[in-house]
Design a protein that fits this description.
With about 180 residues, the chain is an alpha+beta fold. The protein has a domain at about 10-115. The chain is about 30% helix and about 15% strand. It is flat, with a radius of gyration of 26 Å. The mean pLDDT is about 85.
Amino acid sequence: MIHRIAMPIRAENRWLYPIDWPQVSNAIRFVRAGARCERCRRPHRRHVAHLGDGRWWDGTATGWRDGDGRRIAMRRGTVPLAGVRTTYVVLACAHLDHDPGNNAAANLAALCQRCHMLHDAAEHRWQRWWNAFRRRAIRDLFEDPPLTRRRLMRAPTRRIVDTSRRRRVHGPCAAL
């Protein structure tokens, strides 16, 4: 089975990956992992029914699995059919230490979109903070000082109200 899906690597990070990255990625995703996510066991390039909380229907095992890939027992009638959604699963080869230069087999894992996002959540939060910090720093460096002064003067001031001293009583107890 030949998989010809282009690797979504940013152009500025492409030089961090080895020349044989497609072969390394295929070896991890299809040979070692058997075309299944190594965390939750979701199959590659399949539509999977899931409940949104990590539980998903494994059609080959004809049973439900949790977010860690373990089979779980669910009684008939307990699955909210309105809450069942489908997702198309695509495996990616993830660096567990977030270092694209470390391509040791122990540092690579075949992960589906859900598991990859959960694994990278802290890194994405940091990257979002870093991008916002850089934008503010560049604006501070290159913005015209009179323009900055006017922008800061227009900014709404936040008033802190001490609500611990105010006490309002409504209803029949108000007269007491």
